[in-house]
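Following the same procedure, sequence and fold were stored together, as reproduced here:

>
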Amino acid sequence: MTTRFRPAALAAAVLGSACLLAGGPAHATTVTEGSVAQVLDGDNVYRDWFVSRPRCETAGQGGLARGHWGHYTCSPGTVWWHLWTDR
């Protein structure tokens, strides 16, 4: 990469990071549209983090289909989505 293109690449990286940090809903998303309190009350087993809500929900649905858990919650974090389950 030449010196002339480095500032543009840096600006694109910073702008992309800022967009990720600013976006996303401000509430937890569950199979039944629960709240953050539901994460603390019923879904207390932390499984993993995901880049997007659809990926988190796909993993949650996959666990339901295989019988690994009976309920899951995908809650938004600062940047990532977090999968919580009931067992």
